[in-house]
Structure prediction request, 249 residues.
Amino acid sequence: MTGLQRGLQVLEILGAADEPMSLSMIAQQLGLSRSSAFRVVYTLRQMDFLKEADQKSTYTLGSRVLNLGFAYLHQQPITELARTHLAKLRDATEISAHLSVLDDKVVLYLDSHQARSGFVSNMTTGTRVEAYASAIGWCLLSSFSDAELKKFCKGLNMKPITEQTPVNFKQLQARVEDIRQKGYVVSRGVREPGGSSIAVPIIRNDGRVAACVNISGPDSGFDFSRIEELYLRETQKAALNISRELGYC
Prediction:
């Protein structure tokens, strides 16, 4: 294994950890001696990819990793295409507007335009949430065939987040099928009580879902008498405009 591979493994290990890790813990995860692990950690620390945590002799990810993450997000072409449309959607609805893609089993928020009011969303650029447990995830899965969806669920630990969380293939299939039929999803309390969202898929020129536009925030930021008249109409408009820029007619 090369030094580069070991360094990348350390970043992945710390990225998945719930708390800072000691050198011994990192060495154990790598399957290396403590001295070999030290050389990798020392190099990453010198380059600011790692930093020392509050607890002595433990490490966590450094600021340079965050810089790389945002560079990746901003290099995705769809973020440039979507930026103006998301800003217009945010301004028209006065609700936070987001662009998301499916990244393996999770929803990755590529861009977020927070509401100018106090009713901001807790979903920001770089946020990752389980696709099976998210209305936006169901939206992103809506061009999957049933066979693809079954494969997606294989080996997935579908733990309930709320009472609305699908916990098996059949339940997820029902959520996805509803979006296939409607072309959108309006959700309330799917991720947490008191939060609502409206999501519409962005379609590529081959008819597959490329990404998802959604608005989300606390219930107090919505006028629920205007769901179709305002919020859904504007979200659909933004998704269609971005789809057209991707070549969808």
Summary: Residues 121 and 217 are 4 Å apart (CA to CA).
